[in-house]
Write a structure and sequence with these properties.
Length: about 240
């Protein structure tokens, strides 16, 4: 199959792993420096830094969990599975980060923080690494909320692409379909009465009745318009059915 001209300029290249390499390199340099300068308190500093960077997302996940438990347990989690809600709101990697920090703090001996700058520098160095590994990443609930607010879900794109593409093909031929329909139905209430109007119904969700007249008594179904046949996407005489 021949490629389209200028395809390289039209299709974005996949992103590389430069940000991951940079995060790993920075974390390695910073932790090595702390290990050389303060070897006796290295693990405690690392544990405290990880705890500082993970407690915030964990507490935020608790608030998300309350929202999910109170309002979305039955509709989004098949009857309210607590374990599924916890992992969706807080995130597995965030919980593992908190557990690792608590474990390191428990295994090391308590020591006074003699230099606050070490903690600041270590947290600065570990943050990109934890962010890259997904420890500080957004939870599934936050990602879902962003996609729903911005209409970024695959279903939204497919739905609008289907409806707009369908209308783009059918509307230019609608006048001929109506004329053919009226020629086949000479007897009936299909004579023009004043101005004509075209009402296009775009569903907002998948909860659509099989028969629209069952939902609205003002709608009356008489018959389908003649099928529209178009050569499309390598298919000869593809049928577009509408009523």
């Amino acid at each position: 199959m021949q490629q389209l001209g200028g395809e390289e300029s039209l299709v974005p290249q996949p992103r590389g792993s430069l940000h991951k390499a940079g995060a790993i390199g920075l974390a390695t340099v910073v932790m090595t420096a702390i290990l050389v300068l303060e070897p006796e308190s290295f693990f405690r500093h690392v544990a405290a830094a990880i705890l500082i960077l993970t407690v915030g997302p964990s507490l935020h996940g608790v608030f998300l969990l309350l929202e999910e438990c109170l309002h979305h347990a039955t509709t989004r989690y098949r009857g309210g599975r607590l374990g599924q809600m916890v992992t969706a709101c807080v995130g597995v990697y965030t919980l593992l980060g908190v557990g690792l920090a608590v474990l390191l703090l428990g295994l090391t001996e308590p020591q006074p923080w003699r230099d606050q700058w070490s903690m600041v520098i270590l947290a600065f160095g570990l943050y990109p690494l934890l962010k890259t590994l997904g420890v500080l990443g957004p939870s599934e609930v936050e990602v879902s909320e962003i996609c729903e607010e911005r209409k970024m879900n695959v279903a939204h794109g497919l739905a609008w692409s289907f409806h707009l593409g369908y209308l783009n093909l059918v509307l230019p031929r609608l006048e001929g379909s109506i004329a053919e329909f009226r020629a086949l139905h000479t007897a009936g209430p299909f004579e023009t009465r004043g101005s004509r109007k075209l009402l296009i119904l775009l569903p907002l969700n998948a909860n659509i009745a099989h028969k629209l007249e069952d939902e609205d008594t003002n709608i009356r179904f008489y018959d389908n318009l003649p099928n529209t046949e178009i050569d499309r996407a390598g298919v000869r005489g593809r049928v577009y059915k509408h009523r």
